[in-house]
Design goal:
Elements lengths: L1 E9 L9 H12 L3 E4 L4 E6 H17 L4 E8 L61 H6 L31 H13 L8 H13 L8 H9 L3 H12 L1
Antiparallel strand pairs: 1-3, 1-4, 2-3
Helix pairs in contact: 1-2, 4-5, 6-7
Length: 242
């Protein structure tokens, strides 16, 4: 059985030379014979179950002796990424429907973050929901409100309602996040997945500042664009809020 361990260490210093404790943890994983990927937001190590589990104490010890104040670790079967089961408060969940008022959420699944505050100040924009499948917008619809379409059979009334008295279904454009990412890639002169370590860290920071993580499925989409896992993106958001 093959496992993978993803770990991050604090304090985190983005957009610059990696801290000594992160390098020490990576080196310990390499010395243990694990396949190691030193990513922009965390380090991923893969190997046979026994080899990986035996190496975890040495990895944590190396990070702490290298100056880390905290090591966050997630172990899973190789090839899985379940960090979107729960995310930081204010960050839209990736795959699970939830009301806008669910309140504070737990950190990444399977990860203990004792003493760490949940992120604050990350805008929340839950995707509006309604019955039925949205119709394609007409020219008149787009002229009056380019972000809204009406459900089939609804007659235009005052903004936000139909003449039948049923609230109009407002569908958030699904490409809003894609546009944010495309704009950022133009600014940075490369696709997010092609950026160097510091560039990817900067990209996540800018997307956070622009409210990208208030959109549903944002963590998953950004992680895919960067070529990293959701676990490390969630950890980054927690770090920024701490």
């Amino acid at each position: 059985m093959r496992l993978e361990a993803e770990f991050t260490s604090e304090p985190f210093r983005g957009e610059g030379a990696p801290p000594e404790h992160a390098l020490a943890a990576r080196d310990a994983a390499v010395e243990a014979g694990l396949e190691t990927d030193f990513g922009p937001l965390g380090t991923l190590a893969r190997g046979e179950a026994k080899a990986l589990l035996d190496a975890i104490p040495a990895i944590a010890k190396a990070a702490l002796e290298g100056g880390a104040t905290q090591v966050t670790l997630q172990v899973r079967h190789a090839g899985t990424d379940t960090a979107d089961a729960a995310g930081p408060a204010g960050v839209a969940r990736a795959d699970v429907d939830q009301p806008a008022d669910t309140g504070r959420a737990a950190g990444p699944a399977g990860v203990s973050r004792a003493g760490a505050d949940e992120p604050a100040g990350v805008s929340t924009a839950a995707e509006p929901r309604g019955a039925g499948t949205a119709a394609e917008p007409t020219d008149a619809d787009m002229a009056s409100d380019p972000t809204s379409v009406r459900t089939p059979g609804a007659t235009a009334g005052p903004r936000g309602t139909s003449t039948a008295g049923t609230p109009e279904t407002v569908v958030e454009l699904t490409d809003a996040l894609a546009r944010l990412i495309a704009d950022l890639e133009r600014e940075m002169g490369a696709r997010l997945g092609e950026l160097d370590r510091a560039g990817k860290q900067r990209a996540v920071r800018i997307l956070r500042e622009r409210g990208a993580f208030g959109l549903r499925k944002s963590v998953s989409s950004v992680a895919d664009a960067l070529g990293v896992t959701r676990f490390t993106v969630y950890n980054y958001l927690n770090r920024e809020a701490d």
